[in-house]
Amino acid sequence: MPEAYRIGVLGAGAFASRRHLPALQSDPRARVVAACRRDPEALATFADHFHIPDRYTNWEAMLNDAALDGVLIATPHDQHYAQAKAALECGLHVLMEKPMALSGEEAKELADLAHLLGRSLVVAFNPPYWRHTNALRAGIAAGRVGDLESVDIRISVSAAAVFGKAPMPETMPGVVRPTLFRADPAANGGGNLMDGGGHLFSELLWVTGRAPLAVSALMDTTPDDMRAVLLVRLEGNLLATITAVADSAYQTRRIRSTYDGSQGTAIATGLPYQIVWRTEQGDETLPESNLPDIATPVSDWLDGFDTGHGPLGSPEHGVQVTRLLAAAYESARLGRVINV
Q1: Which of 107, 163, 272, 330 has CB 3.0 to 4.6 Å from 100, enough for a Cys bridge?
Q2: Over pLDDT 70: what percentage of the chain?
Q3: How far apart are CA 283 and CA 264, in angstroms?
Q4: Name one Pfam family in it (predicted).
């Protein structure tokens, strides 16, 4: 390998600054050498903070002119497909924020292209990189709750501000303030379900290991939903319900996942996360701090640069989640069940 892989950032914004840049700069295998953002003032703030030398306001110029080995994509959702495709065609490895694309066809094209070119493509959904979801996946696969019979995943958060529906708090994390691209359904690809809901679908597919077959969705408004309830049918006649609320008046984030089986139940709650394995013999409670460490999206991505290592947040997983998201919006729009 070179002295350090040269990494560029497309979307030098609040989320990249608090999630991926610290991991990149703490890994000796990586050196962030270029950053791109359309707003030159915010770009300067971001790049100065992370000591990034090369700065661009045009993403195509960065891909064409900067000497890079890989690129992080954390731009508005409607730009992901074009930017990831261009980066792969430049021979770069790609770490991209969710959603992978806005259609299953585009996501599949990216996955196929990465495999064809032998590039590391990682989609940074949370569940493949969370300790508690990996423990759930292993325990359920080992039969700790018997045969899965039903799944319920729900989240309630107070995030109206990032959708332009409430004032933005001054205390928002990040080196620069978040933009309001999520307030535009075209740029966001939808509403809250397209933004945070992908993590819920990712958890469902990651933990159960089953492919989605059909979905029925109800949303408060379409396509700029803030609240959604979904019923998903998966392989093995497994049914799952998902509830996502983004405009709760209750400020503390509430997350709860329940996996009911023929011999018991697994319940995950957060934050902080913990798992309760419940059987007729009693409960076993495991806080996330007692669970084994898992790779980060950045370390998992860098592992694949030379080794061809198959990532946890694989392109195939990204394709499945993207297809399910697209089908959910179609279901809400048409008022009927949609096959995935």
Answers
A1: 107
A2: 99
A3: 10
A4: GFO_IDH_MocA
Spell out where 15-124 has E strands.
30-36, 54-56, 70-73, 93-96, 121-123
Q: Residue 116's domain spans which residues? A: 5-124+297-312
- pLDDT tens string 46-85: 999 999 999 999 999 999 999 999 999 999 999 999 999 9
103 and 189 share one domain: no
Which of helix, strand or coil describes residue 311? coil
**Whether residues 149 and 179 fall in one domain:** yes
* DSSP letter, residue 158: B
Same domain for 100 and 140: no
Q: Running DSSP on this structure, what letter comes out for residue 66?
A: S
The two three-digit tokens of residue 33, written as one number: 């050498």
Inter-residue contact 113 to 87 (CB < 8 Å) = no
User: How far apart are the C-alpha atoms of 179 and 163, rounded to whole Å?
Assistant: 9
Alpha helices by DSSP H, the chain: 14-26, 40-50, 59-65, 80-89, 104-117, 131-141, 185-188, 192, 198-208, 297-307, 315-334
* Structure tokens given for 72: 């992080």
CA distance 96 to 197: 16
Residues 109 and 96 in one domain: yes
Q: Which residues pair with 176 in a beta bridge?
A: none
Please tell me the distance from the alpha carbon of residue 277 to that of residue 90, in angstroms, as a whole number.
47
Mind giving me the DSSP string for 167-196? Answer: PPPTT--SSS----GGGSHHHHTSSHIIII
Sign of CA dihedral 99, 101, 105, 108: negative
pLDDT band at 307; cut points 50, 70, 90: confident
How many structural domains compose the chain?
Answer: 2
